[in-house]
Amino acid sequence: MNREPRSILHIVAHQDDDLYFMNPDLVRALQDGDRITTVVLTAGEGDGINVDTDNPQRGSVQPDFAGYSTARGCGLRSAYARMATGDRTSPWRREPVELVPGFAVERFTLAARENVQMFFCQLHMGAPTPQGTRTRITDLWAGQIRTQATLPVRGSTVAEVQHVSREQVVGGLVSLLAHIGPTTVRTMDPDPEHDGGKQGFVMSDHLDHTATARFALAALARHRETAPAPPVVEHFRAYANRFWGYNLDAGAVEEKAAYLATYAGLDATTACPQGTCDACGDRQLGPNPYRSTHMRSAAYRYSPATNWLRLGPGGRLNAFAVLGGRLAFWTETGAATGEWQGPFTLGDGWIAPTLAVAGEPGGPAHLVALRRREMPGGEVSVDLVHTTQDPKGGGFYDWESLENPDWHHTDPRVQRETGVPSAAVDGAGRLHVFVRNFSQGISMRRQDDHGGWGPWEDLGGSFVQDAGTAIRNDLGAVELYVPGKGSVHRYHQADMGAPFVRDDTLTTGKVATGGITAVNSGGNRTCLYFREAATGQVMAYRQHENGRWPGAGAGVGGHAGTGAVAALWAPERGAREAYLAHRGSRGRLVVSLPVRDKDAAGAHWRERGDMLTHAPAMALDAAGALVITAVGTDGRLHVHRQLVPETGSPLGPVRIV
Q1: From CA 281, how far away is CA 366, in angstroms rounded?
Q2: Can you tell me the distance from the alpha carbon of 628 to that of 631, in angstroms, rounded to the nearest whole number?
Q3: pLDDT score recorded for residue 274
Q4: CA distance 255 to 95
Q5: Residue 176: inside a domain
Q6: 3-state helix vs strand vs coil in the chain, percent to 5
Q7: 265 & 368 share domain
Q8: Has residue 1 been placed in a domain?
Q9: From CA 324, how far away is CA 311, in angstroms rounded?
């Protein structure tokens, strides 16, 4: 099968953002031969001193802003050359490109790989103003300054200083999007969480990261109006990675450190390949890449869900995702046909990449999403929105706003941190919606018997990750499971409709950032699947028959990787013999299916298919065959279906919709 072309665009603030926060996804795409384009918005010149930040003598060094920016750019190109070709000195071709009138940037093309390009915009982060202050990209976004000066690097083909407006930056990105036609766009966190361990509002992330994400979203919103196919959009956490369980295994961290060492110039044995640096590379990192904890995770801002494939009206499987900020869904042409149509994209506004999907088995789907809107005056509105599929499964009603738990807070920054939704219907068909609130506890809003919505309820808790999962148990009651700092929190009802009680007795161990999955394993027993922090191993944690929980999770193996684990329970089997799927260390789908022989206990992991985004999903079709879906970095739905609906049947060839 000929693989569809994949074009991946990174929009970052500084020269090391993708190396710290988006690797190993970046290097895997380079190794796969994908078209890779990276845009660096700022000059990243910092304090202009290219000396180890731990060096006590660095205060006596005179700043050289252009020199430091030059060294960082050379270091990044060296790292890319090594990731793509194995040779850090592989040459680049450089040339000026005018994105829009009055805004020219420098384009670098890797000579050995013409489909690897970098664009350096060089917005000056320390440009002096008449008032004696220094500008930042966040000031340009907010309209506090009309233009931002650029900082040309040494030897640049764009040697003149330009004064660039906000509109020129957005328009330039739109021009690049149209030219490149990316199938996946990766950028920063537009609404990072605050530091919950400190009093008041203390931002955890760099302001440049946030502004860059907002520029990227503005450009993407324009681009999708004319794009033939809207891209997958991925937002990566940055400094907030330090708060939660690291999600990369030792091998991935070691590999990541090696490329950061190249970026820092630690492995340089010859002069700068571009002939522009005295010390090629970012020497502020020092001699040890491991001293920064940022590199130990590569986590999405919007933790991915695994319940976005379900059996809907008419016995047809439906798959749901977000493409270019809009709801997208695919549907089988008939019950268990294995033939699909879509994607159909719906709605206005900008929807975050993660959806909560719920509903009665075989009935219309409830969808809950996080909607983000730029408001007049520069403020941001973030609310939960809900829609329901029509009874025949052919379309959806308009979005209705559920607001958010911090909707009426006087500080507009507070509501921007609303978490990704989790949702489930109880035995009476009433939808329950859960999110992490600003206090890093859990809030819930639920429907009444007539479909109306009650107020937001604070269920308590603190320091929970933004990655919960909700299910309905055998009693028709709803349960929510959310990872915390060192274990998992459970919110549950004694009976359907009863108040929620928080249970902190679970001793799963530390859960890696990226999600948790709960399944009903029969006998009113819940089984949790998650990744162990710092190893990426898939863990199972099954409730005992008496309702109590074991003392620790059990390792199920897997191929490391990141993101949530999709799971379906296999009757008469154990926790290790469930249907399992996740995103492995190479960014590809990794699957474990129960075999025919019940005595062949344990997981049986196999890698298949191409690189995927977010997390896979799985369900049984109307004939009882297992179907696993993933959205690839090509922006298309990848469908894996059992050859026959029997335990032990292998998956057939992948179908790309």
Answers
A1: 50
A2: 11
A3: 66
A4: 31
A5: yes
A6: 20, 35, 45
A7: no
A8: no
A9: 25
Per the structure block, which two tokens stand in for 135? Answer: 């500008």
Calculate ∠ Cα 252-257-260, nearest 5°. 130
Rounded-to-integer distance, Cα 66 and Cα 85, Å = 28
Map tokens 């995103």 to a residue: 583
Residue 3 has what pLDDT?
Answer: 54
Write down which residue in 243, 269, 296 finishes a domain.
Answer: 296
Q: Report the alpha-carbon distance of residue 601 to residue 93 in Å, rounded.
A: 55
pLDDT of residue 596: 87
Whether 283 and 319 share a structural domain: no
Which pLDDT value is given to residue 278? 67
Q: Supply the DSSP string of 58-72, one letter for each residue.
A: GGGSPP-HHHHHHHH
Who's near 40: CB < 8 A, 6+ residues apart? 12, 13, 14, 15, 17, 73, 76, 118, 119, 120, 121
Tell whether 462 and 608 lie within a shared domain: yes
Quick one: pLDDT at residue 1? 39
Amino acid type, 373:
R
Domain of 68 in residue numbering reads as 7-296
122 within a domain of the structure (yes/no):
yes
C-alpha span between 619 and 624 (Å, rounded)? 9
Residues of the chain with pLDDT under 50: 1-2
Q: Do residues 213 and 317 share a domain?
A: no
* 632 within domain boundaries: yes
Which secondary structure element, helix H or strand E, spans residue 210, and what is its range?
Answer: helix 207-223
Q: SS3 for 74?
A: helix
Query: What pLDDT is attached to residue 130?
Result: 67
State the Rg of the chain over Cα. Answer: 25
3-state secondary structure of 99: strand
Q: Which residues pair with 39 in a beta bridge?
A: 11, 119
Same domain, 253 and 375: no
- Which residues are bridge partners to 149 per DSSP? 163
- Give the separation between CA 446 and CA 466, rounded to whole angstroms: 19
